[in-house]
Write a structure and sequence with these properties.
Layout: H1 4-10, H2 15-22, H3 26-35, H4 44-57, H5 62-66, H6 87-95, H7 107-113, H8 133-147, E1 151-155, H9 162-176, E2 180-183, H10 202-213, H11 223-239, E3 243-248, H12 256-266, E4 269-270, E5 273-274, E6 277-282, H13 285-289, H14 298-301, E7 305-308, H15 317-327, H16 338-347, E8 349-350, E9 356-357, H17 361-378, H18 385-390
Parallel strand pairs: 1-6, 1-7, 2-3, 3-6
Antiparallel strand pairs: 4-5, 8-9
């Protein structure tokens, strides 16, 4: 941060007033003060002279003017002075997209943009769910597996929308009154190795099936008797007209032996009908476990369909933002302009390494909320490229 911030405080002037004097946006001034980022469209000497003139006209002393563009001392007494970034660190920042922690809309932001609920927070209903062509295919694939038959793995990065699709499927089946029993084993603290947490065993899956399909029965203690009980319960339920879908979230943390046993679970039949459909939902590590080069799970790999939740395409980002904002009752053009949308797309794309995109709903939402908060703080009417770059 530059001493310019303290100089403005000393003469009781705000950044937005300096911005008006310079005929630039307040975001431009903020980027200079907080990130030493000079505007590209104005010569640095002219911009510097304009700032010095503003300081002098409002009574700043010579020391404040002469040191305005020097690095300020840390404001917190116990905080270490900021390290000077090395060239490697700068290069890394240019190559790697910066993800933000969970962001919350501030009260002043809600007032400034007339947004009364976070458009990017947990969805309130199926109508809040943005459905692109890619998502529509995966959504329908999950539905067909649940209603008819199949063995499916849905893979995606954190924040890609996997859990949203799971909730959507369950709500859809419920709303239709579909004769499908959904079985979801508890995966809290599940890890693929027992020393890290609780490994999900095939016996736990059998218990979950019996609990849903035959809730009045007590699971047998003997392993062989328990699996026979599970098979009998599935047959009886099928004869009563029900189908069964096993959904396992966090499947990337499943132990390989349990993953292998799912193939045997799929072999449980009544005549020509498979008794259990299976949907695995996990992060990209699940792709590694289901690799064709992994001989331990080759029987599973040959039988499972793997679909990956792709990031939002840059050309669809505006459509995604428009949909989410309008669900909150706010027009897109009242919140962000085209330069801001482009800046978000660039910010969440890794340039120079295969253009890896992190344009997933969670990352986009966090960056957008942070940009809205900054815009409200600076008094900007809409989010633009400079606001996004200043987050």
């Amino acid at each position: 941060m530059l001493n310019l911030k303290h100089a403005l405080v000393g003469i009781e002037q705000k950044q937005i007033q300096l911005a008006k004097h310079l005929n630039v946006s307040s975001a431009t001034v903020s980027l200079l003060i907080n990130h030493r980022q000079w505007p590209k469209t104005i010569p640095e000497a002219d911009f510097r002279a304009g700032i010095e003139q503003f300081l002098k006209e409002h009574g700043a002393n010579d020391e404040a003017v002469n040191t305005a563009f020097e690095e300020a001392e840390p404001e917190r007494a116990n905080a270490p002075a900021p390290a000077i970034p090395t060239k490697k660190a700068i290069d890394d920042q240019e190559c790697e997209p910066m993800l933000l922690r969970k962001q919350v809309l501030l009260p002043e932001t809600k007032r400034a943009f007339s947004i009364f609920r976070d458009p990017f927070d947990d969805l309130q209903s199926q109508q809040d769910m943005y459905v692109s062509g890619d998502i529509r295919y995966i959504r329908e694939s999950m539905y067909q597996v649940a209603r008819h038959d199949g063995f499916l793995a849905v893979v995606g990065e954190s924040g890609a929308g996997k859990s949203t699709l799971r909730r959507d499927l369950i709500n859809r089946l419920h709303d239709e009154g579909a004769p499908v029993l959904v079985i979801e084993p508890y995966v809290l603290a599940m890890e693929d190795k027992g020393e890290k947490g609780k490994a999900l065993r095939t016996a736990h899956i059998a218990d979950a099936i019996v609990d849903v399909v035959a809730p009045l029965e007590r699971p047998k203690s003997n392993p062989e008797a328990r699996f026979r009980q599970m098979h009998r319960a599935l047959k009886n339920s099928h004869e009563s007209g029900f189908r069964h879908v096993l959904i396992i979230e966090e499947a990337h943390s499943m132990p390989l032996p349990t993953l292998k046993h799912l193939k045997r679970l799929r072999e449980l039949e009544s005549g020509f009908t498979k008794l259990v459909s299976i949907i695995l939902i996990g992060q990209t590590e699940l792709m590694v476990k289901l690799s064709e080069r992994n001989p331990e799970v080759r029987e599973v790999v040959q039988r499972i369909e793997v679909v990956e939740l792709a990031p939002i395409r840059p050309e669809q980002l505006g459509e995604f933002l428009k949909f989410r904002l309008e669900r909150a009752g706010v027009p897109l053009e009242k919140v962000i302009d085209n330069t801001g949308i482009q800046a978000i797309a660039e910010r969440l794309t890794t340039a120079g390494r295969g253009d890896r995109s992190l344009l997933y709903p969670l990352a986009v939402g966090n960056l957008m909320v942070a940009a809205l908060n900054l815009a409200a703080q600076l008094g900007e009417p809409v989010v633009n490229a400079q606001i996004v770059q200043g987050v």
